[in-house]
Amino acid sequence: MDFYDIAMRPPEAESCCSVNPWKSRLALNFKGVAHKTTWVSVPEIPRVRRDLGIPACRKYPDGSDFMTLPILVDPTTNSKIGDSFDIAVYLQKTYPTSGDGDLFPPQVVEFAFEPDLPAWAPRLTERKDAEYPEYSKFNMMIDAAFTAHVVLMGYYMPLDSEESKEAMVRRAGADSWEDFKVEGKPRERMIESLRVMLGELAKLFSKDTSGPFIMGKRASYADLIVGGWLYMMSRTLPGNEWQEARSWHGGTFGSLYDGLQKYAEVK
Fold first, then answer.
1. Which pLDDT score, from 0 to 100, does residue 120 have?
2. Is 115 left (phi over 0), alpha (psi -120 to 50) or beta?
């Protein structure tokens, strides 16, 4: 399979930090599915999606297309999927017993958090007809909760070129890359907001204390959804902020990150 991720500074295996590709990478490795990563610079993403015939899967608040990755191309079934949740569903349906088994075991994954999102942020919408609706709703809620805090990370994304930075600036309607930098008291307040949000999420992980996952020792796609954000945080939060976040709430998310390491190989 061909897997498309957003290019960061070489070596990409150590710098890749895009959250939705990380969700899919974790799912591919969970399923033990062989794949090869193609790295795409931010300015090239719209062309790559068009060339593959894959429409945008998200919209900006103004209704325009948000062209992003991941993409998975499976030549064995002639399938092309351009959304992280759809990729997980595809892997489960096409390879139901491979790897560590079911990505979507039945469970209740309730999480409620009502954040204020940046005006430029492309929002996920709930899929009324989605397969695995419990997981789909959870994905939407987690996306919103972490996106509300993405300003802590965006400035430190190790993009591969100035052209990629300029493309990100245009996406956000900003004037320059420096506009993404948050320091001083505003950063302290945002970090505290992140800590509080993660405290609410940690309650879900405290229901079964036998392991680092929501279901204890058994990982599911819900853990991978959160894991995608943790991998972004680990590679973009500056200084000791990631180590601090790992330790919050009894080390819940440090343990989750460590538990997902076996699915984190970049291929």
1. 58
2. beta
151: amino acid identity, one letter:
V
Mean pLDDT for the chain? 93
Q: Are strands 36-40 and 71-74 parallel, antiparallel or unpaired?
A: unpaired
Closest CA to 19 of 29, 33, 5, 30: 5
Give the per-residue pLDDT at 62.
76
* Domain 2-263 of CATH type 3.90.1640.10: no
Confidence (pTM): 0.95
Q: With 90 as the cut, is the pLDDT of residue 61 above it? A: no
How far apart, in whole angstroms, are the C-alpha atoms of residue 199 and residue 192? Answer: 10
Please report, for the chain, the start and end positions of each structural domain, with discontinuous segments joined by +: 2-263
Euclidean distance between CA atoms 123 and 108, whole angstroms: 23
What are the tens digits of pLDDT across the range 203-236? 999 999 999 999 999 999 999 999 999 999 999 9
